[in-house]
Structure of Patatin-like phospholipase family protein:
Amino acid sequence: MTKLGLALGGGGTAGCAHLGVLLALEEAGIQIDCLAGTSSGAIVAALYGYGYSAKELIDMVPSLSKRFLDYDYQSFLLRLVNRTIKIRGFIKGQKLHDLIADKTNDAHMTDLKIPVALLSADIKEARKVIFTSHPLENESKEADVITDIPVADAVQASFSIPVVFSPVLYGGRMLVDGGVLDNCPVDAVRLLGADRVIAVDLVFADPVTSSFDSVTSILTRVVSINLAMQAKQMTRKADILLRPEVGSVGILDFSKLDKCIQCGYEYTRSRMNEIKEALAGFYTKGGSHAFLRHLNV
């Protein structure tokens, strides 16, 4: 039986565009059989795999705010009087972890209804780590695979952007945002058995007119360029590439969540005929007439 997979890339709060993409696909009757996600894409993939619909996820968005960003002020203050205090990130990430745990009822990866793979990076070993809900159909030589882990722990490890969030310590590993090594996990969703892959890439590095007059602006730009070049290589392996142009959105800019959802939705709707044609051609070869009826083509 042929399977359709969805690879959701990282992008900070711009990741809400994934919800608009999912809503447009659902409305078109396109069923996703497996998902892989990195960073913000991991949050969406995990919750969708748990069983929430796109509409249900969108309904959660208004409750999201900066109150879920637990800045580690105490460590910074202690650092002023005790230079031995170690600081590994500005934000602990525990509140976002607890939110995911609450929304999934403390589920483990193996409890997810749809096959899901979440990407993280072990900075000690310089290796990918794949948290998966179902056995992989092919062995990965480039990644360590972990299944026995709570969903919230896996998601936190995937979204822990270096310096911004504290790394996650798990099984002797020091885990950070999966985007360090794979920001749009097409390979991972293939390992879950996807025959056809739709990839959603949210990172752009188009020319800008900024003066780059601060260390932060320069560093942010360098990271964006690196992620964009990396994603360009990864997404070549996808069958359909969606790139909603969300515009300039800070990685923690909660004021633009609705805008990102709408952008993902409208962009995917604008590509829907192309998506259906690509999938219809594929499933015709595979002999899945039921899928063709589902698409109404």
